[in-house]
Structures are given as structure tokens and as C-alpha cells.
């Protein structure tokens, strides 16, 4: 029996690789990287790259759904970056930036669409079809 998770992973890779090639792998393994508690309260949004002293620095932007999670996640930054390094096999992410986003009821391109899509992907990946 084929898992729907495999098809969803292909779709996630195709869509989010356009933003940054490492983002889909982090999104797919997010549950394992940060654990169940944080994976339900925080999402990887994007990766930005800049050059500092001739070295590329990748920053992972994480969106937390409440202030408590946004305040707590930076304390786990070293652990999260180390786990990302383990899953990807090399030091791909050098920094983390956690932001809190309070969504509005009307979601017209304000970031809520990404959150809803990511939550749906997480739910579908956990089912067998």
C-alpha cells in the first residue's frame, strides 16, 4: 500500500524548493527536528542567505503561534541547529530567527495560508491511505 505521505513529500519538495533548496527537507523532518511539542506550535517559513567575510550564512526563519513559544525556542537554538545538521548531513543553517505572528480572522495573504497549508500537510503525512 502506497502512503499518501510519499506524494505529499514530492509536492512539498516541488513547491518549497523554489524558495530555498534546503527548506523542503527541513519542513518534511520538522517533527523530528524540534519534537512534537514545538512542531505543533512553530513552523519553518523561509531561509535567507547572506555573505559575511566571504562565507555564506543561512538563516532559518521560524514562525511561532504564541508569545510563549517564540520566547522559548531561542533557548533551544543550538539543539535545533544541531538536529538540522544531523538530518541534512552538513551545517546548512547557521542562525535561527523566531517571530510571533498573530493571525487575523480574514486571511488575505497575511501568512495564515502558509500555516494552514503546513498544518494540513502534517496531518496528511501522518495518515495511511
UniProtKB/TrEMBL annotation:
Protein name: DUF721 domain-containing protein
